[in-house]
Write a sequence for this structure.
């Protein structure tokens, strides 16, 4: 990929993406980072050898891809600043801001822009992200490919059919890491209740989550569960207990609540 990529907002997500892109062979001279925090920028320049700029309009003008990586609440202001750039079908905007619809971004940028909206998640910070992507009608096949390659620098990237599906992506993978953190926390606490020292329960629960997630990459999860659930065994008793307590309903309710909040946030972020 030889595109010049300009990051507007050089925080956690941008830093992960820049690290991932460089690790995948992208040239440092083809990355520019812009941020209002000069100290942060200088640190990135030292760490990665990339170009930095405090003039986001000038930096974006020279870029093939503009990555919008500021907090959702800052998107309107940042995009309005960039609206002085002429509409250019060859220039791709990618937003990683949670909840901000592509239509709003396009409007704030002045219209007629090729925009990919992406919903990444926190494990992108360790190269194990899961991102959902949606493109507006101005994005061509080559630009989709570029966006996919950029997000794959920090994990997997999956295209959804409609932008509205990103609310479901948010409910599954966007908010999902916290569900697993919570489950690990609860399993640790259960271990302590059963008499284990906290440190022991914590190490066992975390390694078990890692092991299970690693096995689930290769095999069907239902089959994996059945394989470790022997008749009249200990795991079977735990699974029966989960089923009696309707864990399926709890998970479904939780995902539905995240989905509802995602829809609400989009409304709040685009209110005039
Ligand atoms: N981190 C994740 O795992 C994750 C997951 C999913 C989605 N996202 C999305 O990714 C985006 C960035 O998140 P993040 O965690 O990287 O946030 P972050 O660490 O706060 O980074 C945003 C950066 O943008 C800077 N900034 C603010 N206003 C700016 C402006 N007008 N021009 C240029 N830079 C500006 C901020 O500076 P100050 O700090 O000085 O304000 C900050 O350095 C968010 O929209 C979030 O929804 C992140």
């Amino acid at each position: 990929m030889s595109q010049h990529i300009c990051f507007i907002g050089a925080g956690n997500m941008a830093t992960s993406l820049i690290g991932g892109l460089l690790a995948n062979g992208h040239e440092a001279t083809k990355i520019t980072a812009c941020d209002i925090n000069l100290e942060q920028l200088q640190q990135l320049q030292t760490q990665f050898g990339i170009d930095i700029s405090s003039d986001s309009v000038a930096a974006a003008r020279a870029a093939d891809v503009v990555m919008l990586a500021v907090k959702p609440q800052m998107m309107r202001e940042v995009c309005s600043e960039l609206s002085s750039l002429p509409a250019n079908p060859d220039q791709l905007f990618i937003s990683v801001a949670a909840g901000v619809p592509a239509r709003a971004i396009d409007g704030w940028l002045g219209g007629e822009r090729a925009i990919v909206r992406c919903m990444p998640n926190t494990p992108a910070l360790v190269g194990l992200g899961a991102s959902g992507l949606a493109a507006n009608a101005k994005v061509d096949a080559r630009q989709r490919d570029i966006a996919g390659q950029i997000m794959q620098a920090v994990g997997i990237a999956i295209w959804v059919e409609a932008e509205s599906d990103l609310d479901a992506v948010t409910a599954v993978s966007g908010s999902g890491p916290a569900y697993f953190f919570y489950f690990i926390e609860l399993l640790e606490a259960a271990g302590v209740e059963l008499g284990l020292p906290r440190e022991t329960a914590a190490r066992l629960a975390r390694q078990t989550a890692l092991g299970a997630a690693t096995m689930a990459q290769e095999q069907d999860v239902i089959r994996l569960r059945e394989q470790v659930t022997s008749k009249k065994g200990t795991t079977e008793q735990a699974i029966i207990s989960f089923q009696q307590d309707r864990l399926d309903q709890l998970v479904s309710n939780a995902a539905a609540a995240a989905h509802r909040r995602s829809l609400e946030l989009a409304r709040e972020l685009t209110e005039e």
Notes: The beta strands are 5-8, 31-34, 51-53, 65-68, 92-95, 114-119, 129-135, 155-159. The first helix runs from residue 12 to 23. The radius of gyration is 21 Å.
